[in-house]
From TrEMBL:
One of its GO terms (cellular component) is plasma membrane. The chain crosses the membrane at residues 33-56, 76-97, 155-172, 178-197. Gene3D superfamilies: ABC transporter type 1, transmembrane domain, P-loop containing nucleotide triphosphate hydrolases. This is ABC transporter ATP-binding protein. It is found in: Cell inner membrane. Its main location: membrane. It holds the Pfam family ABC_membrane. GO terms for molecular function: ABC-type transporter activity; ATP binding; ATP hydrolysis activity; ATPase-coupled lipid transmembrane transporter activity. Belongs to the ABC transporter superfamily. Siderophore-Fe(3+) uptake transporter (SIUT) (TC 3.A.1.21) family. Residues 35-322 form the ABC transmembrane type-1 domain. Residues 366-604 form the ABC transporter domain.
Amino acid sequence: MGRMPPTPSAPTGGSLRRGARIIATGFRRQPRWLAIAVIGSALYGVMTVYTARVIGHLTATVVTPAVNARRVTDDQLWTIAWELSIVVALNVIGVILRRVAAGLAFFNLNATYRREVTRQYLRLPLAWHHRHPSGQLLSNANADVEAAWNIFQPLPMALGVLVMLVVGLWEMFTTDLWLALVGVLVFPLLFAVNLVFQSRMAPRATRAQELRAVVSEVAHESIEAGMLVKAMGREERETERFAARTNELRAAAIEVGRVRGTFDPIVEAIPTIGTLAVLAVGTAQVAAGRITAAQVVQIAYLFSVLAFPVRSFGWVLGQLPQSLVGFDRLQRVLTARGEFGYGNRSLPTAGPAHAVAERVTFSYALTGQDSLGYAEAETPSEHFLAVDDVSLDLTPGSTTALVGPTGAGKSTLTDLMVRLVDPDAGEVSIDGTALPQVRRGGIPQSVALVPQQTFLFDDTVEGNVTLGEPHGAEQVRDALAVAQATGFVDALPEGAQTRVGERGASLSGGQRQRIALARAVIRRPRLLVLDDATSAIDPAVETAILTGLRERSAGTTVLVVAYRMSTIALADSVIFLDRGRIADRGTHAELMQRCEGYRTLVTAYAREAAEREAIAADEEPGDQGAVGDSLAGEEEPAR
Ligand SMILES: Nc1ncnc2c1ncn2[C@@H]1O[C@H](COP(=O)(O)OP(=O)(O)OP(=O)(O)O)[C@@H](O)[C@H]1O
């Protein structure tokens, strides 16, 4: 769902200071292109004023004599043509330099920060990711980067205009004091009106921009949930939800148009009134013989061309609030602490792993949102204790089943065992090496986790199994065979070379899980952790997989989060986890005998499964149905 961060407000003293910091950062990161852009813009500014001077000069030396003589010579026409061509050409060169260099600086800054932000995502631990929804991460890497640096689109022009104003006012003062006074009145007025315009415009434009993002998010969500929406008959509700956001966007866009509609004529009118004032004052001065008509033409021209560029100050100020918000959000990611430390030790490369957890504890940070609508990432005040003082000793080559009610902390414990997160207290080690001492990339070489939720890339079956590592077709086939996937993969149009679609859309939940299993198996892990990784697979197939794993992988220690009696039966020992603590451990038979919570849970699963089977058998008498001692339904969607 779209979250609406508070709308940034108009610039204040503090925000101007912070804006200056963004500008300084941009100049530090892209000094060459921004310097060229500013030089180009200054050239444009000087040449615009110079154009006025040339026009004044031509009026005095060519136009006035021609009018007086009532004829114009070729020479006079050529003088006009070439003098004007030179100033216009220089003006155009200035514009090209500014646009190209400012564009390059802007896109370079975007690319640099996108890279930095995504690199930081990969560096930050899973605990940080737990606190930051993926929509927020996408927005950091896209919209926030652009918003932060957008200020560099109008900035070089505004700096050039500054040069233009100084030179222009100088021209006016050196021409005639009275005309200069008109300038001194008109330019600050224009500037002030622009400020008011932008302060009204900025929050409205930002809101419209955010609503555009929200509308596309809602559309994206509705499309993603298309099947659910249809199945649950929620089409109207979804249409209403979308219409509500679209109406908000329409209202916001109308607001923007209204403010623009009010201010545009005023902003346009001020320089025109200035030009009229120049003509009025100028005519009086000419009549008094203080200045010439050419000088009046020069200043009047200056007024008529200055109105548009002066607006670029307004654009800079208008962009400032969004840049501040974008930049702050980027800084939060880039300065986030909690980077995973790595040691320099390597784990053994052969033989089953000896994995030990010693009194590990882990809490999730429960975070609110800060004033920017962001998770209060660095200083969470509340915690939820998910794993509480748990010790495990997985002997090499053993298979251990982790059983517990929903929310007991099973997934969290598996995350700890493969170092997706570090414990708050206690230690996890493999073969005597504490996991934080293992070098970067060392753990995935020894350990594989097949998580609860399967993710497949929009790639071929083979690509999803190898993940781009150099495994031969034989190895892929072998891994698919262990995962009991050969049958359905061979039946695909191009076998293992068939593309599976976005997130494996063309496959069933159970098929996706089998490919994810093959992905782990092909790596020949020394510790294999299966977090409910076979929930959508037919129990008979699951048993075949786990038996195959045991037979083939004398070199693997297995930790499996299990629901089904058939899975549990294959384990050497069982750990019963309840509310984050180990309630009991032993063999299945021992726990059935002495642990009431375990017995209740396991028999409840078994009863539910048996009931489902009975219903299925009643409804479909022709179906083969029987699934033995399953604790969960067959080919149900992946959890
Ligand atoms: N990212 C998170 N932020 C806050 N709390 C979380 C987070 N992930 C899990 N929890 C909480 O931690 C507890 C343990 O969750 P965990 O996923 O480890 O349980 P589980 O035993 O695997 O459950 P299930 O069998 O339903 O998958 C749950 O109460 C859950 O609400």
